[in-house]
């Protein structure tokens, strides 16, 4: 690039000197050749500058480096955010699991307490029923032949007529 600029500059200078000398000496062909060389060298120098202007990527590279640095920072922040989000999810899951375990334990304790309460009430009901049965027997209230006895007759336990005709499986 630098050599092209130096060569084009030398070509312009050489062509201008040749043009001036040929004009002074009256040699038209040499003057045309010098002028053409100067114009061609000027054209080459212009093309070198245009190529440098078109192909100069230093600004684009600087912008690319800036954008890629910014993107890399954004990627790092994203990865850090993902890691913190995953840690928060894990913490919440552990918290939920601990809460479930505590609730399960509370439910088990409550179920055991209710079962014990049910068994106590059932035992009390059985004791009361047994005492009532003994009391009714002692007073003769369960004897159907006793005066004032009100015994409820349960239906006969024989099979129903419709089901009795069906064969057993």
Describe the structure.
With 169 residues, the protein is an all-alpha fold. The chain folds into two domains: 1-56; 64-138. It is built from four helices and no strands. It has helices at 2-25, 28-55, 58-139, 161-164. It is rod-shaped. It starts with a helix and ends in a 5-residue tail after the last helix. 4% of the residues are buried. The model has no long low-confidence stretch (mean pLDDT 85).
Radius of gyration: 57 Å
* Major sheet description: none
Return the string of H and E elements.
HHHH
Shape: rod-shaped
Please, what is the average pLDDT?
85
Low-confidence stretches: none
Percent in helix? over 70%
What distinguishing features does this structure have?
mainly alpha; 2 domains; rod-shaped; 169 residues
How is this fold's topology laid out?
Blueprint (H helix, E strand, L loop, with lengths): L1 H24 L2 H28 L2 H82 L21 H4 L5
Helix pairs in contact: 1-2
How would you summarize this macromolecular structure in one to three sentences?
This protein is an all-alpha fold. The chain is built from 4 helices and no strands.
